[in-house]
Amino acid sequence: MPNYIGTATSRVDGRAKVTGEAKYAGEFNVPGLVHGYVVDSTIPKGQIERIDTSAALGMAGVIDVLTYRNRPQMAAKDDAYKDEVAPEKGSPYRPLYDDRIHFTGQPVALVLAEDWETARVAASQVKIEYQKEPHITDLHAERARAFAVDSPEKSRGDAGKAFASAAVRHAAEYFIPTEHHNPMELFASTAIWQDGQLTVYDKTQGVQNVQQYLCKVFELQPDAVRVMSPYMGGGFGAGLRPQYQVVLAVLGAQALKRPVRVMLTRAQMYALGYRPASIERLALGASSGGTLESMQHEAIAVTSQFEEFARNDTGWGNLLYKSPNAKFEHRLVKLDLPTSCDMRAPGAATGVYALECAMDELAVALKTDPVQLRLQCYSDRHQGEDLPYTSKQLRECYRQGAAAFGWDKRNAEPRSMRDGSELVGWGMASGVWEALQMPATVRIVLTANGHAEVATAASDIGTGTYTIMAQVAADMLGLPIDNISVKLGDSTLPQCPLEGGSWIASSVCNAIANTARAVRGDLLNLANEMKDSPLAGAGVDDVALIDGKIVSKQDATRAVPIASAMQSGTADRITREEANTVAEDKSHARNVHSAIFAEVKVDEQLGVIRVTRVVNAVAAGRILNLKTAHSQVMGGVVWGIGMALHEETLFDHQFGRVMNANIAEYHVPVNADIHDIEVIFVDEPDEIVNPLGIKGLGEIGIVGVAAAIANAVYHATGKRVRDLPITLDKVVQFN
Amino acid sequence: MTPFQYTRANDVADAIKQIATDPYAKFIAGGTNLIDLIKYDVEGPSRLIDISHLPLRSIEPTSAGGVLIGAMVPNADLAYHPVIEERYPMLARAILSGASQQLRNMASTGGNLLQRTRCFYFYDTATPCNKREPGSGCSAIDGVNRINAILGTSEACIATHPSDMCVALAALEAVVHVIGPAGARTIAIADFHRLPGNTPQRDTNLEPDEIITAIELPPKGFSANYSYLKIRDRLSYAFALVSVAAALELDGETIKEARLALGGVAHKPWRSTAAEAALLGQRADATAFAKAADWLLHGAKGYGHNNFKIGLARRAIMRTLDQAARGTPQSISDKKIR
């Protein structure tokens, strides 16, 4: 029995975080640090005509102002700017490269000063004149120009014909506005040149991605650049691609030969990536008995003029529901904006919202209970690939979620349930995400005093990676968790992919298991070099490391203390570095699933919505840490409430500007908006997905939540709102 | 952001003296709005004169039977003061409907009156705004105007006043005590804030060299029949789309006196004597409330995104009057609208 895996272990980095000991990218102070402040473009498109930096340069404390004219050398080819997750098609944005303006908020100058306040004042004195060009930032205005991208899911049958002849049909268009990540921590980078070595503290979800990017952009040797991101105050996808402040910090450091920090303001962060606004068109055709005959899903989403960012919005129905005919299409509209990017559950948060609202509407048309309809359409195989799942306990999610919520007491009739002046609505939805594993390498250094250091280049973006790694290592090495130290967020550590896609837990924990097995093998060899070893003849898989001992699995009385084995072999330390085993097995679909049940109360006259209860039942394989897993899903639910009711980046399309570029006016839920949230983890043993049966939890918590709330609002009010956020004026017709 | 000097005023006379010497100086008390405006380059004072230490922190009874509130009393202290809670609960609830506890701890009573609008364009120096830069134009009229005004607007400006506290003060007919080089004077709250007209850059009738010393509440607090209802896009920590302060004096079911003010809809807390007169002598019921709402919203005009505010305000007025009449005021902690 494991001691730590599956328990509610508190965060091992909790103390460091609450005491301020944990340092973030903008907190590394070095002697002679120069502060950079970004001057950003006030226009969305055009050309810089004139830059006057004289006033800024004349201010005491200002060292230099960098622009495209006087910046240090940068690579000339597109390829250098393509990071690990850059869209395949397009030409990545190059910070401070030339006089072209591609989007509002684009950096056009970097003021470098002895202190941040001086840099900020001087930045307001940099005068820039532009030659403006006509711009367009409105998806709706440009939708006719949408073009199709390669769809990740194949179509099958004749969905159009099947829809036309279906007994019951539902077709509608849903809309999700642009949303921004708004992590608490501002994006920041500190770049330090010393003896030909560049060290960068960066806010990033992938230190090795940034390291490789900087090597290419600045034409540096790999061993000359080290990127670190030990802690992160929220990423959510915003930190997957290298952001422009890291380039500016390195440019500044190169120009001045001094350490430079560049920290963005909250408003400037609205010129980074964002969840693209998308129009989702659903058409579902069903038999009168309530099985799907046709499923069509088309998405039209935003990207920049210079890159084609697209995610799988439309294929999720293939994972959830049987339908002999299906058609999926993803289209893009190019606008004068930064390139859109991944944001928690990219593609699924938006696509499944639309799909699950459409399923609810179909259930209404069929006069069928929404849970019942999903069970009738339930698919035990991936419909697109015709593959079984490694595991899929979604039926159990529906059952346990419905039971915990009390779904059987629901009156199907809209507007039928009341609580005083409030209409009560109950809605539900399904959630789905991928259970991915990526190649990752973990190094373990076990010392003779019974301590182990576990290291990989992953970033802990706040999800609890430090903690789950310590838990898994402690169990695999048979040590107390306090004897494990975890090192992350340093590009010089063993290879690890970006922290994203919910794949880090499965990737690094399986790598720990492999590395721990190698350590165990070394220990067994040392033990068996001892005279009269009780473990003589045992192979590495015949023994386990338990309570500081190498123990025979057959006979627990046959054991050798780890310390004795190492002492006898005069080994001070054992160092091993192994990767996880990523199977190229295409015989199964690998997914996590969830069922969400939501209760809303809506003031009938005023349209004020309160989400009074949410139950999210999740089947995600082995749960490593009940506490961090619960937090992860609870956070997803809160974000889903925000997506349903609050979040929207407001554009003035005439100016091509974001008008609510601050978290006072860009609304996310506050405590008053949050009531009961119950998280259920459905038991889901899975020996196929990966050796430890881990599926990952980063994204699934948000998927489907907005749909469950939208469906509950319909049930409460009889009003179907198909464009998010669901504000009170969309629920009630006031005039 | 531009550099500024910082000085501290020792007493009220010193404050007036200091501000008279520098036309670009500003007083700073809690700084909960001004500091943001400086950071956004909307305000660029040459000097900040710190008045937060002035001895204007008392809450005292007046000889007329009302209460005099020092201008430096923090919003939080005011809202939780026993006399305010007991005699002027509508004011307490209005204050607690705004901002967050941290902000209310910092914000001063006088400063609350001088909050500037939250119109998106006012804060964005890359766009025209007549309030920020007279003569540059109003971007909100044809722009993102969901949060903007529906009453008392002009072609130059459709900004709203963001305060909750002031809406209750308007309903209570508070009096603002100010002092300047020409001496002390009082300004009725109804005359304190201005409509935008052709000079939207001027929010109030306070002269630039004057300082608010106190807010006086008349004896009547309407503690039996009142309510403050704030409707916004999330349940806390957001500015009002529409807010309503309603206070009634009832004789049985008959309305003897009525006060009604709206927030979030105009450049100042919005009152109408006709609306209140329409309630007098009437039975406190939906018919009377609807008439009052019609009067109060007379001439209301939407600008596109904010059209819904007219109907929302109408329903909010009726609901708040109903809460007041029933003696079941809107709770601050419970976001359910009773």
UniProtKB/TrEMBL annotation, chain A:
GO terms for molecular function: iron ion binding; oxidoreductase activity. Residues 19-134 form the Aldehyde oxidase/xanthine dehydrogenase a/b hammerhead domain. SUPFAM superfamilies: CO dehydrogenase molybdoprotein N-domain-like, Molybdenum cofactor-binding domain. Pfam families: Ald_Xan_dh_C, MoCoBD_1, MoCoBD_2. This is Xanthine dehydrogenase family protein molybdopterin-binding subunit.
Automatic annotation (TrEMBL), chain B:
SMART domains: CO_deh_flav_C. The keyword Flavoprotein applies. Residues 1-222 form the FAD-binding PCMH-type domain. Transmembrane segments: none annotated. SUPFAM superfamilies: CO dehydrogenase flavoprotein C-terminal domain-like (SSF55447), FAD-binding/transporter-associated domain-like (SSF56176). InterPro entries: CO_DH_flav_C, CO_DH_flav_C_dom_sf, Diverse_Substr_Oxidored, FAD-bd_PCMH, FAD-bd_PCMH-like_sf, FAD-bd_PCMH_sub1, FAD-bd_PCMH_sub2, Mopterin_DH_FAD-bd. Keywords: FAD, Flavoprotein. It comes from the Bacteria. This is Xanthine dehydrogenase family protein subunit M. It comes from Bradyrhizobium archetypum.
